[in-house]
Amino acid sequence: MDIREIVTVTNKFLVEEFEANPESISPEANMKSTLDLDSLDYIDMVVVIEDNFGFKVNPEDFQSIVTFQDFYNYVATRVQQKELV
């Protein structure tokens, strides 16, 4: 799975699961404020990521994610690691 596919899948579930405005999702936008995420939303996001991409998410990984690009890069790295196993 390449980065374009990851961005497409991610943006689709952000719109569907978190009712995000597709126009507000851009690589440099702040993910937390754009999606108005609270702690329960992060739990939901962990479940959605695991379902869509097939890897275990450590909740503390979100501490380093600020922008949507950070999020895409995180998912891409984890997917690549999973594919190497």
UniProtKB/TrEMBL annotation:
SUPFAM superfamilies: ACP-like (SSF47336). Residues 1-79 form the Carrier domain. Keywords: Phosphopantetheine, Phosphoprotein. The keyword Amino-acid biosynthesis does not apply. InterPro entries: ACP (IPR003231), ACP-like_sf (IPR036736), PP-bd_ACP (IPR009081). GO terms for molecular function: acyl binding; acyl carrier activity. PANTHER family: ACYL CARRIER PROTEIN, CARRIER DOMAIN-CONTAINING PROTEIN. This is Acyl carrier protein. It comes from Chitinophaga polysaccharea.
